[in-house]
Amino acid sequence: MSIAIENFVKAIYKNGKRDNNDTKPGNIAKKLGISNAAATDMAQKLASKDLLHYEKYQALKLTDKGNKMALNVVRKHRLWESLLFKLFDMSLHDIHREAELLEHQTSDLLANKISEYLGNPKFDPHGDPIPNANGEITTTDTSIALSQTSEGKKYMISRLMSDDKEFFEFCAQHGLKFGNTLFVSKQFNKNKMTQILINNNTILLNEDFTSIIYVNESN
Amino acid sequence: MSIAIENFVKAIYKNGKRDNNDTKPGNIAKKLGISNAAATDMAQKLASKDLLHYEKYQALKLTDKGNKMALNVVRKHRLWESLLFKLFDMSLHDIHREAELLEHQTSDLLANKISEYLGNPKFDPHGDPIPNANGEITTTDTSIALSQTSEGKKYMISRLMSDDKEFFEFCAQHGLKFGNTLFVSKQFNKNKMTQILINNNTILLNEDFTSIIYVNESN
DNA sequence: AAAAATATTTAAGCTTACTTAAATATTGTT
DNA sequence: AACAATATTTAAGTAAGCTTAAATATTTTT
Ligand SMILES: [Mn+2]
Ligand SMILES: [Mn+2]
Ligand SMILES: [Mn+2]
Ligand SMILES: [Mn+2]
């Protein structure tokens, strides 16, 4: 399957998972940087290949076959991120950018070699789960967005759901990193802001950030 | 530049280097598995992009710009082969196959990271030289084909110029490996065969093999 | 030096993955 | 419930990278 198809299927998969947007052509188009017309076109083509269910004006839904393909690409993406992060001194944003391309040029055999070399990791450097060779995610995610946390509790960062360079630079600067702990000192519910204490620094985060930083309650 | 263009330019580069075939569209077409017509078409297109000199019915010649592009792709190819060979238990043929794809999806930055990680190696696992970040090959190659060697002398294998699976399997089986030494016991000039002694085994090689196994005279 | 065999080029056409513009349907607002 | 705003779909068209078939040039053989 082509790069365009792999990216399309993956975008639907991720849209359905994370964003509770409904997965209509327009949303996918926006993510992929193509026109709505192109997305509709592609959706119809993929339906004829049995990769997704298409009904005019309805949300797109992957078939089992489409889902499997998406998970295969996601697996390769996250394995590459893990490898590059381990071997080289590269930022989360940079490894993501490289993985976005490498994911399409990787045989299943190579993916398995990478996985084996890394000790079959279950999570990538963002904290995202890595599907196994059968396209299954066996770990269960108990984490919640920082925006959903309670005042006065301690949490461990489990996932940074972003591809944005500036966000990662901000995170790096303030110690917001997979595995680090923080304390939620105040929730400004009206303003949708969250005040946290991390590394003895107090920071105020708005919803753009608190909705993509995932955490687990800590001791 | 597209994958098709990178492969095309690289094929011209390699054809000019190794094979003393003249580099006409038909030869390139054969290597890339496309029609002669497609190769001519592409050659004309690349001439308009200043990547090669095209004159009807004449051999193709890369411009400086084209040469630089080819070396950049070759660099990435050989760095990937080096990395995969080091990290994973993969055959020379397999690493070549993966590198053939990865070479087109690798930023200069990532290439430099790989090079640095490996200690800026000068040769890949086949013994082929790796161009530096400026697209220069600084090593000089003094090796000769096994077919050109003299009876009664000892040589060290410096290069296995092939992508062929069966050839590599044969090599692996008989200890024909980068760095290993062999003794040329007889040259059958009329039959274009070479008899060598390696690991206490005598093997008779025909020209298909002796022309792609490169060696340096050894003590 | 012809003739025959080969190789190259041109021409016409196809598929993929896009684009913009126009038509149509859905959704949100008054 | 009607109107306006928004989203989706259809239609028409483009560029890249191929194909096969036919025309033309080059190379090899006789
Ligand atoms: Mn990523
Ligand atoms: Mn991608
Ligand atoms: Mn190779
Ligand atoms: Mn290639």
TrEMBL record, chains A, B:
Question: Molecular function terms in GO for this entry?
Answer: DNA binding; DNA-binding transcription factor activity; protein dimerization activity; transition metal ion binding
Task: Name the PROSITE patterns for this protein.
Answer: HTH_DTXR (PS50944)
Q: Which residues form a coiled coil?
A: none
Q: Name one Pfam family in it.
A: Fe_dep_repr_C
Q: Which top-rank group of organisms is this from?
A: Bacteria
| Keyword terms of this UniProt record | DNA-binding, Transcription, Transcription regulation
- Xref: InterPro entries: DtxR_MntR_Metal-Reg (IPR050536), Fe-transptr_FeoA-like (IPR007167), Fe_dep_repressor (IPR001367), Fe_dep_repressor_sf (IPR036421), FeoA_core_dom (IPR038157), HTH_DTXR (IPR022687), Iron_dep_repressor (IPR022689), WH-like_DNA-bd_sf (IPR036388)
HTH dtxR-type domain residues: 1-63
Instruction: State the similarity comment.
Output: Belongs to the DtxR/MntR family.
Annotated function: In the presence of manganese, represses expression of mntH and mntS. Up-regulates expression of mntP.
This protein's name: Transcriptional regulator MntR
Native source organism of the sequence: Algibacter luteus
